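Would you be willing to look carefully at the protein I have copied below?

:::
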Amino acid sequence: MKYLYLFVLLLSALCGRAQQLAPLSIAQHFVAREGWSGFARYVCCEVQQQARRQTLGQQIPAHLQRTCEVVQQTDSTAVVAVELRDSTGGNDFYLHFVRQNTWKLQAVRGLGMTNFGRQMLTVLEGLPADERARYNQTHPKAEYDFTVGNIRLWIGSDADIEAHFTQHQADFEKTVRLLQAGSYFRSEPADEAAANADPAIDALLKSLYISRVTRKSTDCDACFAFVIGGLIDNTVGLLYEPDESKVPAMHPGSLIVVKPLGHGWYLFKTT
C-alpha cells in the first residue's frame, strides 16, 4: 500500500510537470484565433481581471496573422513579442510573464497614443505641393519630409523600424562616434541640448528621422537613446549600449520592450 501511495504521488508530480507551459507556448495559445479553454490557469494579476471570458486571440480580428517571438526569458520573468500582420502592414504588442511556481501572463502592453500620429500623417500626406513648401517655412527645424518620415517610423511596426535601422546602421554608428568624441555627455548633468544642436549630429539625426538623442527616456546612465517619437511617456526609439549588463530591464510599467538588434543596438518602447 505504501508503494502504491508513493507511485500515485510520483505520477501526480509528473503529470503536473507535463502540464506546465513555457511563456512562448502560453503566448501562442493566448493569441490563437480559436481561443483557449484552459487559459485561466496561466494568467494572473491584471490579465486575470481583463480576460475573464475570452482570450486576446478571440478579440483580435480573425484575418490578422499572429507571430510570437521570445524577447527575453530569465528564471523569474519573460517577455514575448507578438506581431499582427495583414496585407497593409503590421502592429506589435508585448506579453509580460512572471514565474509563480508556473509561468503566468501578468500584463499585455503596446505603444499607446499612435492614433494621433496616424491622423497627423493623413493630414500631412494630403497637403498639396504649395502647402508643403509653406509648411517648411513655418517649421524650419522639422520640415515636411523629416516629419512625415519620422511619423511613419513612430507608428510603424517593429519590422519597419528594424529595416530602417539595418539600412542606415552605418549612420547610426557614425552618430554614436560623434557623441562619444564630444563632451556633451561627460558632464553632470549632461548637456543634451548642445548635443542635439551640434550641426553634424543634428544633420545625421534628421536624415535618420530621429527626433533627439538622450539618456533620460530609458533610465540608463550609460546608454544613448535615439528617440523616434511618441506622446507623453509612450515613446519608441533605438538604444545603443554595447555592455549587455548595463541595458535596462523590461517592465510592464516603464520599458515595455527592449528588443536586441545586434552589436549593442536595441529597439525600445516605453509606456
